[in-house]
């Protein structure tokens, strides 16, 4: 969950940027995750859209997110090329499991078995 502390000495865009980076690094936001629109996140957090837009621009410049035009902003894969490919594959697998209506527990069991084989 993202929060902005209005009384903080840290600028709101920096609070947002830092929290998003932490969520990418700890895996809370996986590669390929679509971020809320600038307007929606600004509304949710009670801050100006320009504040969110600035945080998104800086995150994109640092390689944490990528903007795909009208499709929105998404979390970028992180790490070396092999890790990036793994993250992309994991996102594709997770999306397919959801489309099929299968449980996460079953999916994890299948992946674990496949990796052991």
UniProtKB/TrEMBL annotation:
One annotated GO molecular function: DNA-binding transcription factor activity
Entry keyword Membrane: no
A Pfam family the protein falls into: GntR
Source lineage: Bacteria, Bacillati, Actinomycetota, Actinomycetes, Micrococcales
Organism: Glaciihabitans arcticus
Keywords in alphabetical order: DNA-binding, Transcription, Transcription regulation
Superkingdom to which the source organism belongs: Bacteria
The keyword Manganese is annotated on this UniProt entry: no
Name the record gives this protein: GntR family transcriptional regulator
InterPro entries linked: Tscrpt_reg_HTH_GntR, WH-like_DNA-bd_sf, WH_DNA-bd_sf
Domain HTH gntR-type: 10-78
PANTHER family assigned: HTH-TYPE TRANSCRIPTIONAL REPRESSOR YTRA
């Amino acid at each position: 969950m993202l929060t902005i502390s209005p009384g903080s000495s840290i600028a709101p865009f920096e609070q947002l940027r830092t929290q998003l980076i932490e969520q990418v690094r700890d895996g809370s936001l996986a590669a390929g995750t679509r971020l809320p629109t600038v307007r929606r996140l600004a509304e949710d957090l009670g801050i100006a859209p320009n504040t969110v837009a600035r945080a998104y621009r800086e995150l994109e410049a640092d390689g944490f997110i990528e903007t795909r035009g009208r499709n929105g902003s998404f979390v970028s894969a992180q790490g070396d090329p092999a890790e990036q490919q793994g993250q992309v594959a994991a996102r594709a697998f997770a999306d397919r499991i959801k489309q099929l209506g299968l449980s996460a527990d079953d999916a994890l069991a299948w992946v674990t078995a496949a990796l052991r084989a």
